[in-house]
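Supplementary Methods. Inverse-folding protocol.

Structures were first reduced to a discrete structure-token string of length 223. This string, shown here, constituted the complete conditioning input.
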């Protein structure tokens, strides 16, 4: 009898063992890839569109009308060329324009084929103490994609009537016609016989057309 009970017990243990469900084995979960920060788009480079020649200096604007560069006449040559190169591309090798040995200094000249930039050299004094440290001469209404005008909207090729309609404060004879002076830095000094202020000259020549812009143009001669 004991033998039968032991055998039954053994069979019951084997049956229970066969019916038990093994614990599931955990499978490793693949790590989610780390999210990379979204790349910040590079700001678009300014596209120069318009160069404005003023009595005080030069301003460069992009296609949105935002000022992207400027210089005044007493700025160092490198600063002025940085603006002009942004507008027109690499500067050409400089030329030399000799002064008269008394009133006018020698000038390095940079010809952008439509705009000449003159920068005084060997002054023997700070640039801001010389009456004409730099000047530009404009002979084109546009260079490449950049148009050139005065603050009053005058351009080479425009009409003399448009110039005169602005009631220029002064006008002087010029080798190419008549130089009408506008945009004074200090309007109170325009008629001062002892002093002068820088202005912009719109030179009106043949066919009553603007043939050149010059800045700065002193309101009175120092010669």
């Amino acid at each position: 009898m004991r033998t039968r009970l032991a055998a039954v017990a053994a069979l019951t243990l084997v049956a229970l063992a066969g019916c038990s469900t093994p614990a599931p084995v955990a499978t490793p979960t693949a790590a989610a890839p780390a999210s990379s920060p979204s790349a910040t788009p590079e700001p678009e480079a300014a596209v120069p569109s318009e160069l404005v020649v003023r009595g005080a200096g030069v301003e460069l604007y992009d296609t949105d009308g935002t000022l992207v560069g400027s210089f005044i006449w007493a700025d160092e040559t490198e600063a002025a060329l940085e603006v002009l190169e942004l507008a027109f591309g690499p500067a050409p090798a400089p030329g030399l324009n000799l002064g008269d040995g008394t009133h006018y200094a020698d000038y390095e000249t940079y010809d952008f084929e439509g705009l000449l930039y003159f920068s005084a050299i060997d002054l023997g004094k700070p640039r801001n103490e010389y009456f004409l440290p730099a000047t530009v001469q404009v002979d084109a209404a546009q260079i490449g994609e950049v148009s050139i005008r005065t603050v009053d909207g005058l351009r080479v090729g425009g009409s003399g009537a448009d110039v005169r309609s602005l009631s220029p404060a002064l006008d002087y004879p010029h080798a190419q016609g008549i130089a009408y002076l506008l945009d004074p830095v200090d309007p109170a000094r325009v008629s001062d016989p002892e002093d002068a202020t820088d202005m912009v000259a719109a030179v009106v020549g043949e066919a009553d057309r603007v043939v050149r812009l010059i800045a700065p143009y002193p309101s009175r001669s120092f010669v």
